[in-house]
Amino acid sequence: MNVSLATSAGRPGRRNEDFVGAVPGAVVLLDGAGIPGAESLCSHGVVWYTRHLGAALLAHLSYDDGRDLAAVLASAIGETAAEHCDTCDIADPRSPQATVAVLRVNRDNLDYLLLADSLLVFDLAGGSPHVITDDREVTARRECSVPLDGLAPGNPEYDRVRASCAEALRARRNQVGGYWIAKDDPRAAQEAVTGSRHLDDLDGVALFSNGASRIVSPYALTDWPGVRELLAVEGPTGVIRRVRQAESRSGVPDASMPDDASVAHCTRLSR
After folding, report:
1. Cα separation of 235 and 248, whole Å?
2. Alpha carbon of 236 to those of 119, 232, 243: distances in Å?
3. CB contact set of 42 (below 8 Å; sequence gap of 6+)
4. What pLDDT, on the 0 to 100 scale, is given for residue 41?
5. Are the C-beta atoms of residues 170 and 78 closer than 8 Å to each other?
6. In sequence order, what E strands does the chain have?
7. Residue 40: what pLDDT?
8. CA-CA distance, 130 to 197, in Å (whole number)?
9. Among candidates 80, 96, 73, 98, which has minimal Cα distance to 190?
10. What's the pTM value of the predicted model, to 2 decimals?
11. Which of 10, 16, 55, 61 has its CA 20 to 30 A from that of 249?
């Protein structure tokens, strides 16, 4: 499998909380998250978390011991939690966490796992790209944000309700009926979106963090067939460059809040 990688911090001078890496036959992409001002809960921080979780995942994937991807992720979450559970309040909903996307070649198939809102884009042989994501966080965020309807930003009432909505969303994290993300509890891995595609059905596949997927939504710079063409010509670096160019222009939705962006593009999928 040939793998091209690119990652970019959302703002100059700010550390990149994404992680992307590969070992023979497998790729991992993480999008780290945490709450600003929560340093008292975890002195290590989001960057530390994503890099340690990513390294643990790649180590297990390199063993190629036949376990399914959910079991591999569960082990990695448990090992990372054990590294800082004695010094940090890892159970607090605001402590570091990460979305997870994993691909692994398994004989004649490509196994995949998604936890939270990173994306997999399958380049189907002879067909249009097929996009998979775990949209449970988006659904939970939409439901928790209903109290904001009709309120105008920029006043104390809006700020109070918005803070209440954020607390409600955090309360749904890693709960039945809510959404799931890699954090402190290995059981979250069993809730991941998983599947497998036959290698003969695929010309390639790409992994996108949420920040990189903005090239399609909300920036609408192209569609997923256009992304496939861009990857073929300019690779992951070209995708991220277009996102950053959009953010530098005015009038682009959400451009005032640049996000870390990472892409892994996999071709020649057999080992």
Report:
1. 21
2. 14, 9, 11
3. 34, 49, 84, 88, 89, 90, 95, 96
4. 79
5. no
6. 2-8, 18-23, 26-33, 97-106, 109-115, 119-124, 130-133, 193-198, 202-208, 261-267
7. 72
8. 11
9. 73
10. 0.93
11. 16
| pLDDT digits 0-9 by tens, 68-106 | 999 999 999 999 999 998 888 888 888 899 999 999 999
**What is the residue type of 11?**
R
Among 38, 224, 3, which Cα is nearest to 119's?
224
Check if the beta carbon of residue 239 is closer than 8 Å to that of residue 207.
no
Share of residues in the chain with pLDDT > 90 (%) = 68
Amino acid identity, position 158: Y
Is the separation of the CB atoms in 165 and 133 below 8 Å? no
Query: Smallest Cα–Cα separation from 117: which of 223, 32, 231, 7?
Result: 32
Q: Which of 76, 109, 80, 100 is nearest to 20 (CA)?
A: 100
| Burial (CB count within 10 angstroms: exposed 0-12, middle 13-18, buried 19+), residue 148 | middle
Question: To 10 degrees, what angle do helices 156-171 and 136-144 make?
Answer: 140
pLDDT tens-digit readout, 35-47: 666 667 788 889 9
- Omega before residue 129 within 30° of 0, cis: no
Of 134, 271, 263, the residue nearest 199 (C-alpha): 271
